[in-house]
């Protein structure tokens, strides 16, 4: 299975996928990494010799024009699966519709709890005793697509957004690596998750 990973940030989830894909028995290959800015995580692609591209959101007048360029880049690489992992942008419906259902996203909360760009902060603000990590199929809502994997993560006394997010990310990585594997071997059919 060929995979394109889209990021905006540090790309720790991307790195975990790259490391997993180093194993010749892992049934998926990351063929390209894309970013909506000069993301730090692009360095991981370089470390692993994986091609990357950036489509800087700031260079485009509208989300649709940005999305159209992103879609054009993805078409060049023709991956089987697109993984959003820390992409902090909503994709235009045209791109989602072109790739659906072969486009998944990781989210640092136990969806449908705490969707959106601040899931970790929102769980803390709500005083939740536990939150979680989720992998979903991307639809045209905000973190509203079918859930393909999720796991609870405890909120500990004294947690701040950083400590809680750092406890969530390893769970997210493990779920993501397993979901991509299951898709690759046909255990998980995204058309009927
Ligand atoms: C991850 O928790 C992801 O789910 C969220 O942002 C974080 C990205 O972390 N959207 P990283 O860039 O993979 O380190």
What does this structure look like?
- Pathway: Purine metabolism; IMP biosynthesis via de novo pathway; N(2)-formyl-N(1)-(5-phospho-D-ribosyl)glycinamide from N(1)-(5-phospho-D-ribosyl)glycinamide (10-formyl THF route): step 1/1.
- This is Phosphoribosylglycinamide formyltransferase.
- Belongs to the GART family.
- (6R)-10-formyltetrahydrofolate binds at residues 63, 88-91, 105.
- The chain has 193 residues and is of the alpha/beta class.
- The protein has helices at residues 12-22, 42-47, 63-77, 93-99, 119-125, 161-184, and strands at 2-7, 29-35, 52-54, 81-84, 103-107, 130-137, 147-154.
- It is built from 6 helices and 7 strands; from the N terminus they run βαβαβαβαβαββα.
- It is globular, with a radius of gyration of 16 Å.
- A 7-stranded mixed beta sheet has the order 3-2-1-4-5-6-7, with helices on both faces.
- Helix 1 runs parallel beside helix 6.
- The mean pLDDT is 97.
- Helix content is 36%, strand content 21%.
- Helix 4 links the parallel strand 4 (81-84) and strand 5.
- 5-O-phosphono-beta-D-ribofuranosylamine (GRF) is lined by residues 7, 9-14, 41, 85-86, 106-108, 169, 172.
- Residues 7, 9-14, 41, 85-86, 106-108, 169, 172 line the site of 5-O-phosphono-beta-D-ribofuranosylamine.
Strand content: 15-25%
List SSEs in N-to-C order: EHEHEHEHEHEEH
Major β-sheet profile: 7 strands, mixed
**Which shape, going by the Cα principal axes?**
globular
Strand order of the largest sheet: 3-2-1-4-5-6-7
Structural class, by secondary structure, is alpha/beta
Q: Rg, please?
A: 16 Å
Number of strands: 7
Low-confidence stretches: none
The number of distinct helices, counting runs of at least 4 residues, comes to 6
Mean pLDDT: 97
- Bound compounds, please? 5-O-phosphono-beta-D-ribofuranosylamine
How far the N terminus sits from the C terminus, by CA atoms, comes to: 17 Å
- Helix percentage: 25-40%
Active site: 107
Protein name: Phosphoribosylglycinamide formyltransferase
Keywords: Purine biosynthesis, Transferase
Organism: Microbacterium candidum
């Amino acid at each position: 299975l060929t995979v394109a990973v889209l990021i905006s940030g540090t790309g720790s989830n991307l790195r975990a996928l790259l490391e997993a894909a180093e194993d010749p028995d892992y049934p998926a290959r990351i063929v390209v990494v894309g970013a909506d800015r000069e993301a730090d995580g692009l360095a991981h692609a370089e470390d692993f010799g994986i091609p990357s591209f950036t489509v800087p959101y700031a260079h485009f007048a509208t989300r649709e024009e940005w999305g159209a360029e992103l879609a054009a880049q993805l078409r060049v690489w023709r991956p089987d699966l697109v993984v959003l992992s820390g992409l902090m942008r909503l994709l235009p419906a045209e791109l989602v519709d072109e790739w659906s259902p072969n486009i998944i996203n990781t989210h640092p909360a136990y969806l449908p709890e705490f969707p959106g760009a601040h899931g970790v902060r929102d769980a803390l603000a709500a005083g939740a005793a536990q939150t979680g990590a989720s992998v979903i199929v991307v639809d045209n809502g905000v973190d509203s697509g079918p859930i393909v994997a999720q796991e609870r993560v405890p909120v500990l006394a004294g947690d701040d957004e950083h400590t809680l997010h750092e406890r969530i990310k390893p769970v997210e990585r493990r779920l993501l690596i397993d979901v991509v594997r299951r898709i690759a071997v046909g255990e998980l059919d995204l058309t009927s998750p």
